[in-house]
Amino acid sequence: MPSPAHTIIQISDCHLRKRPDDGPWNCTPDRSLQEVFAAVNLAQPDLIILTGDLSDDGSTEAYTRLKRLVDATGIEAHYLLGNHDHAERAQNVLGVQCHSTPTLLRLGDWRLIALNTTVGGHDHGIIDPDDMACIRQMLSAPLDHPVAIFLHHPPVLTGCAWLDEIGLANKDDFIRSIRGRPELRAVFFGHIHQTFESPDSSPAMFGCPSTAAQFLPRSDCFALADSQPGWRQIKLHSDGRFSTQVMRLEKR
To answer: What pTM was estimated for this model as a whole?
Structure first.
């Protein structure tokens, strides 16, 4: 009898600020994130992965509130940083679960690779040469397990011209490094504040909405969308199959 699927919740682009009543784009990120976590608690996933832009201003206060909210779930969580984050402050608050180097995580029969793509002082992302070599080494080892990768910056063009300019700058090198690895099933990223799905690519590629404001898909310049805050649910099966869907808060 096959083992039950393991569930991951991907949360991205929380954009918390120093003051809980403050937020970018005329939104209230603290309030919407609390509502997201209320839904996550009901789902009782096995793992939470937060894929960057945890804070909008890189403040210690924002990371402290986030950690309190995550810890209250009692669910194992791992943090990646985005271009809005302050690495030192985030790691001081979030500890060893905040990953600045490629990290191999285990969940049942799956192996998950958490990557840091941030470049201090810049909106775009880069995987540095040492980290790229580490990724190749991880994928060349006989893992004998299905693999998924998590990172902040999109390693593919998303159809939003302004966002594609600040995606993963060395995405072509990254794709070359992971191409042809049959055990690699999917790549999950944040940064774009919208749903992106390319399930038929190899590997499959999935972008996550923000728990704060949403960006308008297929826009040439910055524009907000009238969409609710969201997150991504991922179910991993022991035979290498997976399913995923975007979940959103209900409109009031």
So the answer is: 0.97
